[in-house]
Structure formats: C-alpha cells, structure tokens
Queue: 2 jobs
Job 1
Amino acid sequence: RVSGLAFSGNGRRMGAVFHNRVVLVWSVGKKPRRLDLAMVSGGELLQESFALDRKGEQIAVGLRDALLLRRVGDDIGAVRRLDAPPRENGMLSFSPDGSVLTGTGSAGEHQDNLQTVVFWDTDTGEQIGEMVLEGRGRADPVAFTPDGTALLVAGTTQSMWRLHPDTLRRRACKVVGPYHVPREWLTRVGTRRSPCEGL
C-alpha cells in the first residue's frame, strides 16, 4: 500500500513510499525505469508525508518526530535524519532550487489550534526557520511558488506567505511572541532580547 506519492517539479521523475517502508523512484517517459530503491527506518511513517525536489534528485520522508533526507542514487547509509517537532501528520515541499525543505505539522502541547511550518537547509540539515499559524488544528498541504519567493499553505483557508525576513518576523511575533520568555528567545534566535521589540 502506498503511503506517499510525488512527482518531481520538472515532471521527469516519480517517487513513492510504501507502508512496508520501501521507497522507489522512477523516470517518467515512454520507457519508465526504476532509478532508486531504499528502505526507511527509525520511526513511524506519516501518511502522505513524502516529497521530491524539482529535479527529482532529493527525497524527503516524514516520520512522527523526524524527517529523512536522501539523494537519489546515494548509498543507503547516506540517509540524513533531520529533527522535527513531534506531530500527528505533516506535508513536505522543496524550494524550487532544492536548497530548502519545508514541512507542516501540529504545533505541540497546549496549543491545539496552532500549526507549525518548519524550514530546513538541505545542505547542512539544520533547521533555519519556523512559523506558527493560527486557527489550524491539522497539517495542511504546503508548496513554494515557482520563483521561491512565497509559500502557500492550503486548507480550509489559504495563506500566502511572502518569504521576506521582516514579513516572517512580524507574523511570527504576532503569534509566538507572547508565549516566549528571554531564555526561550536565547535558544531560538541567540539573544535574550525579543526580536519582536519595536514591531
């Protein structure tokens, strides 16, 4: 049974992850052929939490408490595990140039009406950003615009986020700011001073 299915942005490759933890990637054309075979381990698979980048060169698979990132054709041992907030479900999307992976998920305990959108650098595997959305109790589909300057989160309502640092800071502070103390800001942004001051 298929757990997640995705086409690459250029339409030349298709990938799927199955409930038996097998991941397959095929070329798409007059003579489709299998390009890659891998196994997923290390956590519970999330339904429909699977993505290919634009060229079909990178695979992302969502687990309950992490993401697995792998380049097509690499040795199975080259799979990288990216830390992610624990979640019940989550949708994934690569930026057009493949340098950023983003995923949605539930925002955590005592904030059931919130949802997080997390960003990772695909080269380093480090988390490079996080946004919190109000009024959403589940993970919604997420996608970058073709030029990579905005992010669309679709659900019962649609949100278009311009990916400019000031815009993200204003929106994040509107939702998260009141819940953070200096120690938490130090952990998240490296300073005890709230980045929301002056907004």
Job 2
Amino acid sequence: MVQTISADRITLYQLEAEFGLRQIESASAFLEWQQELPALTPSEQQRLDRVRAAFANLTQRSVLENTVKLAVVAPLLDLAGLFLPPFYVSTEDEVELTAQEGELTIRGRMDVLVLKEQFWLLVIESKRAEFSLKVGIPQVLSYMLTTPDHDRPLYGLVTNGSNFVFFEASLASESSLCSLSGVCAGKSRRFGTGASGVETTRSSGRTVIYDEAPN
C-alpha cells in the first residue's frame, strides 16, 4: 500500500530508509568557502542593511512564512539579479517524489524555484521566524531530489529570515552530492542519493556524509 506524506512532514529518517541514505563521516568539504570572497560594494551593503532593518522591525510581531519570502527572500533574489534574464523565478510549484519500491510518495509545493531556461538552479524554502531551520532541511532535500536534470548542479536555501542554510547538490547517478551549510550556526552538511553519497560538514572540519545504503 502506497503511503503519501506531505513534504513538510518528511523526516531525515524516512529519506534515509526509503531513498537509501546512510550516515558516515569524512573530514573534507566546502574548501571553496575558505577562499577570499569579493567585498560588497557600498550600494550592496546599503541594500542588505535595509533588508536587515526591515526584518528587525517585523520581528516585533510574529513573522509568518510569506512575510519572510516578501521581506527577505525577494530582496535577496533581486540583489542577486535572479529576477532578470536569463533567469526565471517560479513560486508554489507542486512536486512529487516516489521511492523506488513505490511504497512512499512525498508531495509538496516549493516556495521558490529559480530556473535558467528549463534547468533548475535554486530551490528555496522559507519558514516562520520562530521556527528552527531543522524542520526545513528534509523538506528541501526532498524537493531537490525531484529535479528533472541530474547532470547539473542544483542549489538550495532554507531561511527563517535571520538564519540561512545553503545547499549545493550534484545528483548524477555516479556521484550524488548535496552540500548544506549552516552559516549563522557555523555548521554545514551534505546529503545525497548516489554511489558517492551526500555529505555534511561543519566549520570544525567534521563532516557527515549520507551515502547510498548497501543492499
């Protein structure tokens, strides 16, 4: 009998059990983040300060998920130029993911999907300001696994407006990797479903990898 579950209720345990992920440890990840990054321009810094001030004002009351998208996610997408060609932003797209055995189906709606032509570039899930980002991690992972193109990198983001967790996924059959980095918490993770697995790192150098479980 097929069990259908909402993506916002999926757990990492279910993704591991139904989609063949297991946890191991490694010592390497996110080396590119240790390189020198370009400094923000004064204009970019002013726009980010304005987003920060707007969110601080909103947090005097309860900040709902849609408010986070409006006040934080949209300005950041605009600052990154993702509303302009060759990119396209779509919202509330329905997705469905079924385990190979066909016993579990995950359904949900992606808050934001950024495309370049037909290729998925970025999947974003926003949460209420009061919510822990942990609740969004398996949700975004399940969305990222539904990408129609496993040959190109895919990025993801979970945010509650004040904290951000970024993903970078490569879901090729021989090397399925998804890196997750908790910036504010100083943590990062990787998850995946291929022979090389999904990896998770932390700023301390400890890395957790989710790899394809043996038969």
